[in-house]
UniProtKB/TrEMBL annotation, chain A:
Mg(2+) 2 binds at residues 128, 280. This is Phosphoribosylformylglycinamidine synthase subunit PurL. It catalyses: N(2)-formyl-N(1)-(5-phospho-beta-D-ribosyl)glycinamide + L-glutamine + ATP + H2O = 2-formamido-N(1)-(5-O-phospho-beta-D-ribosyl)acetamidine + L-glutamate + ADP + phosphate + H(+). The gene is purL. Substrate binds at residues 105-108, 127, 252, 324-326, 552.
Automatic annotation (TrEMBL), chain B:
This is Phosphoribosylformylglycinamidine synthase subunit PurQ. Its EC number is 6.3.5.3, 3.5.1.2. It is found in: Cytoplasm. GO terms for cellular component: cytoplasm. It comes from Kribbella sandramycini. SUPFAM superfamilies: Class I glutamine amidotransferase-like. Part of the FGAM synthase complex composed of 1 PurL, 1 PurQ and 2 PurS subunits. The active site is at residues 85, 193, 195. The gene is purQ.
Length: 753, 222
């Protein structure tokens, strides 16, 4: 097969090109022709097709994501050192340290090939963090599946969990949290989101740009193979069609051992100060790295594609440009540092090759064995992709859905009914013990995990001397977002914010992974715009910027989209991790008073109770009051600092009942509790009102604690005392912890072993 | 008093082992797999991880590293060596210890707080524990199931070389064996991770510290 050179393209304008098979629309193909003033070569077509895919170009979401720019870019901890648009946002956390964190999706690959899809999802986000100059220090994985008893869940869940663990464990990164959620809409479209946190010194910050005429472009890491070709275009940016061809070859295959070497090698390269600019290779592979580096630089770039080391010598240049082979990085290096750079790579047994250089042409030029196959303005590939103002419209069924509240459904009344409901909820897939999943993740490696699942947030010690640390939580209740995407997104933000604060850390920044159905459906697009509006308003009110994230569209099977799932990750800073607040009730806390902070309303729509007991989804989600959330956070943080509380646990899915059960089983000690005056025991146990937490207060600190709440006029109600080996709801029922534990822990092993 | 910790390509718990050595009061020294020089250390830890990605077999490639030649030689002369998890696998592949570690019987990676009983408190790495001391430290591995033929197992038992036993077998190890030693007691292989139980802040307990304080005493005594 002869090479389709630029010269050839100029002389054969009418050649039929497979733009449609590559996922391009007719007007997009025409636009490429207009930009170039000729037909693209097959290599150029390959590059544009992957870079203009939904996944890389954000063409349907761009106009809406711009709104995140309205949020002030200052965090409560300090300034942002890098923001949206870089590989990941970077936040100054004090003492000379900076933290970077980001969440991304790897949904479609994980459905097609669960193990590798999930594994390479972890690998991709870790390289994003590494590319900023940071040492990755922890990962988290929010996962969503179809019903636990569905046969396909038994196919995808074990593979995905094993892939997350297999890759992350081999990298030596503790997995400190995440979510495992089940809902029928995720059947055929599981969500695999991966979050990574990295730490660096301020001076270590690196950015992705290719500047400096004559600087060398070095590709290092794994060799390029035929895996992942079209991953972002044909896989991540389309809906799966029934009966279509298998898309397995579009999934990448990971080698965590190579990635571990890449991490250590890259950190040593930074240390040696031999890197001018750096970019990881993820979605769209070399097409993305070359065009983005060149586009962000001040000149142009020339690359000899035949110098790229190959795993499969038969690969065509188009395939090399599109390959999403994992564990590769691209660096810009001054000529006098090349030798030192290659020496460090050799120390770590990492292959490194000079494949090009920075030019002053303003163009991205790529040759294949001396023939020019790409000659494009880099910006047109990386940033000037199509932008769609997709139509959006509040769906006609939304009113009907909101009118159908769960508050009218029959509730448990007698003591026995309440007891049975609690046991049934505790054992339900969304509320049960998740250690079948999380025990497959290493949470200890690196020796700085202060808190990990099932705590409210994961917490990592950053400095061993001062105790400075960070906490991260990810949350989203997709049912709330379905009932009202604006409020649902705010509730996800509020829950994540609260989870960070309950551990004693000050929430400072947000990353989000916006998982939605097809943007070509106006109803989905409306959900998306509403969720963004909710996040923007919420972040403004809480004073936290969105530092980065990811959009995943086309999460639907046929006509059924997933629940709108804007997963929100909140990062918090704690000046001394030794004062962290855990969730468990321990022997040392016997006799501590339990207080419920916040107000409980008759809010049952979208709750776990409605889902599990009635299979019902309708009504309006709980009200969200971010000013109250802020007050609650202040109380939790101050109480932690002043030693007024020894345990705290947020109230969310499953209500106060679930909060108490989790705290009791975590620490092994029970509680005697009562419903506050005037509150119906059922609502006390199962309502899912936001802005609440249960705290354990030592008797000696009770007055100081209640004085603080009173001074802030924040609702606080004594609901019980930590004691014994049962959960005793006075005048109602008493459940032995052994029985609760049995119900709570049996569900996943029974379904999956 | 220096404890050296080897870093192989793919070692993961090397920094943790160095931290544990420092917490115990030793000077922690980083050793590089490609360098046969042990830099004058008094004891060596082969840390956990997935050296060489566990490709071929766990520990099978690492045992050919230049640093291992020196370690194998010096172990024969009495140098205290502790192989943790992947390090235990390397010691078995190096034939410094008998038996092998195969995939967990449930075929999954497992990370949990594990109860153990110290069966032999006379080795270089366990003298600070009481006889039959029960401890809880971190277990995390994929290939943690200890196997050996019956004769070898009988010999290990007979010679008191079973150093630690699981209370509640988590991975199918024969006779609940979590750790063993060589005849002289200076080389110990342990599947669970004592280096992750040296601080209350980050570990389940501080029960793992004894391995590191034991070797300090053993070195001073010799």
């Amino acid at each position: 097969m002869s090479t389709d050179t630029v010269t050839n393209a100029e002389s054969t304008p009418d050649v039929e090109q497979p733009w449609a098979d590559l996922g391009l629309k007719p007007d997009e193909y025409q636009r490429i022709r207009d930009i170039l003033g000729r037909r693209p070569t097959s290599c150029e077509l390959a590059m544009y097709s992957v870079m203009w895919s939904e996944h890389c170009s954000y063409k349907s979401s761009k106009v809406h994501l711009r709104r995140f720019g309205e949020i002030p870019q200052e965090t409560p901890a300090g300034k942002m050192l890098a923001g949206i648009g870089e590989n990941a946002g970077v936040i100054d956390i004090g003492e000379g340290y900076a933290v970077t964190f980001k969440v991304e999706s790897h949904n479609h690959p994980s459905y097609v090939e669960p193990y590798q899809g999930a594994a390479t999802g972890v690998g991709g986000i870790v390289r994003d963090i590494l590319a900023m100059g940071a040492r990755p220090v922890a990962v988290m994985d929010p996962l969503r599946f179809g019903p636990l008893d569905a046969p396909d869940t038994k196919r995808v869940l074990p593979g995905i969990v094993s892939g997350v663990g297999g890759y992350g464990n081999s990298l030596g990164l503790p997995n400190i949290g995440g979510e495992v959620v089940f809902d029928p809409t995720y059947l055929g479209n599981p969500l695999v989101n991966a979050l990574c946190v990295g730490v660096m010194r301020h001076e270590d910050l690196h950015l992705a740009n290719a500047t400096g005429l004559g600087n060398q472009i070095i590709l290092y890491g794994a060799k390029t193979g035929g895996d992942g070709i079209g991953g972002v275009s044909v896989l991540a940016s389309e809906t799966f069609a029934e009966g279509g061809p298998t898309k397995r070859p579009a999934v990448q295959v990971g080698d965590p051992f190579m990635e571990k070497l890449l991490i250590e090698c890259t950190l040593e390269l930074f240390q040696a100060e031999v890197v001018e600019g750096i970019q990881d290779l993820g979605g769209a592979g070399l097409s993305c790295a070359t065009s983005e580096l060149a586009s962000a630089g001040d000149g142009g770039m020339h690359v000899s594609l035949d110098k790229v080391p190959l795993r499969d010598a038969s690969l065509a240049p188009e395939e090399i440009l599109m390959s999403e082979s994992q564990e590769r990085m691209m660096a810009v290096v001054t000529p006098d540092n090349v030798e030192a750079f290659l020496k460090i790579c050799a120390k770590w047994d990492v292959q490194a090759d000079v494949i090009g250089e920075v030019t002053d042409t303003g163009k991205l030029e790529i040759d294949w064995h001396g023939e020019r196959v790409v000659d494009v303005p880099p910006r047109s590939v990386a940033h000037d992709g199509p932008v769609y103002n997709r139509p959006f419209e509040r769906p006609s069924w939304q009113d009907e859905l909101q009118a159908d509240g769960a508050e009218k459904l029959p509730r448990a009344k007698t003591a026995e009914e309440l007891r049975d409901t609690l046991l049934r909820l505790v054992a339900s897939p969304n509320l049960c013990d998740k250690s079948w999943v999380t025990d497959q993740y290493d949470r200890y490696v690196l020796g700085n995990s202060v808190l990990a699942q099932p705590e409210d947030s994961g917490m990592i010690r950053v400095d061993e001397t001062s105790g400075l640390g960070v906490a991260v939580s990810t949350d989203c209740n997709g049912r709330f977002a379905k009932l009202d995407p604006y409020t649902g997104a705010k509730l996800a933000l509020a829950e994540s914010f609260r989870n960070v604060a309950t551990t004693g850390a000050r929430p400072v920044a947000v990353t989000d992974c916006l998982n939605f159905g097809s943007p070509e459906d106006p109803a989905v697009m409306w959900q998306f715009t509403e969720a963004i509006r909710g996040l923007v308003d919420g972040c403004k009110e809480l004073g936290m910027p969105v530092t980065g994230g990811n959009v995943s569209f086309y999460n639907q099977t046929g006509e059924t989209p997933i629940l709108p799932t804007p997963v929100v990750g909140v990062l918090g800073v704690i000046d001394d991790v030794t004062r962290r607040t855990p969730i468990g009730f321990t022997t040392a806390m016997e006799g501590h008073q339990l207080y419920l902070l916040g107000e409980t309303a008759e809010e049952l729509s979208g709750s776990e109770w409605a889902h599990v007991v009635h299979g019902h989804l309708g009504g309006r989600p709980p009200a969200v009051d971010l000013a109250a959330e802020q007050q609650l956070a202040d109380i939790l943080i101050n109480a932690s600092r002043d030693g007024l509380i020894d345990a705290a646990h947020d109230v969310s899915d499953g209500g106060v009942a679930q909060t108490l059960v989790e705290s009791a089983l975590r620490g092994g000690v029970g509680a005697r509790v009562w419903a506050p005056d005037g509150l119906d025991p059922f609502l006390f146990l199962f309502a899912e009102s936001a802005g609440r937490a249960v705290v354990a207060v030592p008797r000696t600190e009770e007055v100081r604690f209640t004085d603080m709440c009173t001074a802030r006029r924040f609702p606080h109600t004594r609901i019980g005392v930590i004691t014994g080996d049962t959960l005793d709801l006075q005048d109602q029922f008493e459940l032995p912890l052994t029985e609760l534990r049995e119900a709570w822990t049996a569900t996943l092993p029974n379904a999956l072993n | 008093m220096k404890i050296g910790v080897v870093t192989f390509p793919g070692s993961l718990d090397d920094a943790d082992a160095r931290r544990a050595a420092a917490v115990a009061g030793a000077e922690a020294v980083a050793l590089w797999h490609g360098d046969a020089d042990l830099l004058g250390v008094d004891a060596v830890v082969l840390p956990g991880g997935f050296s060489y990605g566990d490709y071929l077999r766990a520990g099978a490639i690492s045992r050919f590293a230049p640093v291992m030649e020196t370690i194998i030689k010096k172990a024969g002369e009495g140098l205290p060596v502790l192989g943790i998890c992947n390090g235990f696998q390397v010691l078995c592949e190096s034939h410094l210890l008998p038996g092998a570690l195969i995939k967990n019987h449930h075929r999954k990676f497992v990370c949990k707080d594990q109860r153990l009983r110290i069966e032999n408190n006379t080795t270089a790495w366990t003298s600070d524990y009481d006889a039959n001391h029960e401890i809880t430290i971190v277990l995390k591995n994929q290939d943690g199931s200890f196997v050996a033929d019956e004769a070898t197992l009988d010999r290990l038992e007979g010679e008191g070389r079973v150093v630690a036993r699981y209370l509640g077998n988590p991975n199918g190890s024969y006779r609940d064996i979590a750790g063993i030693s060589n005849e002289r007691g200076n080389v110990v292989g342990l599947m669970p991770h004592p280096e992750h139980a040296v601080e209350n802040l980050t570990g389940p307990t501080t029960d793992g510290l004894g391995f590191f304080t034991s070797v300090l005493k053993a070195v001073v005594a010799s």
